[in-house]
Fold:
Amino acid sequence: MTAAESSAGLTPVSPPGREPRVWKFIGTSLWGLALFGAMFAGQIIVVAWFLISSGEPVDTSSMTALLTNGRIISLSVIMGLPAILIMLWIATRLSRTPFADYLALRWTSWRMFAVGVASMVMLMVVWEIISRVAGRESSPGFMMDVLKTARADGALWLLVFAFCVAAPITEEFFARGFLYRGWSESFLGPGGAILLSSAVWTLMHMQYSWFFLAQVFSIGLLLGYLRYLSNSTWLVVVLHGLNNLAATVQTIWLANNS
Structure:
């Protein structure tokens, strides 16, 4: 402040701070690609390390063995979590919105939790009935192979942690946390954001057959709707984890009785 300003009783006006914002459709889509790339890089590093350390030639049989190895898959899924968290922190930091606020990392009511559990159970019962009528396996063959190799390596606990903790956090922070938040505040609105984020989430599970992809998409729609109703990403993380735990227990039971 100059002497003239002081004597006149004037106080310089500080430049206004930049307001927090939410990435809209294009920004969310571009950041989504970066987030997916970071997650994929974190996961593929594990596979590449095991492939190089094995000293085996890179061919179809060696890649198939690696990609169905329970211990390797578990470590790969786990490594995707810190990779995507770093990119999410950068994206939300640049938006000037607190990380937890941007991703709706808040709990919801126990009533909403009960509604979520009940609706998830009902959806799974419907799909179980469809599976039996269609004469299809209740658990994808990919999961069965992964579980058997994890058990043989003594890494079943690692598989449970990866599928029931790491994967739900990674996928829900990405799909129902970041993508839904930005797309729902764009021209898509909540309904379009639920559909598009569910489609993206389904594409992340291309190791499954079309039948199980349809199941994944329906789960995505339910989780997206619950995210909309509750405004809580933690709710869908927990529901996702419980669903994966139920699927893992079912796969273990089927493996024991096959």
Summary: The chain has one domain: 23-256. The chain is about 75% helix and 0% strand.
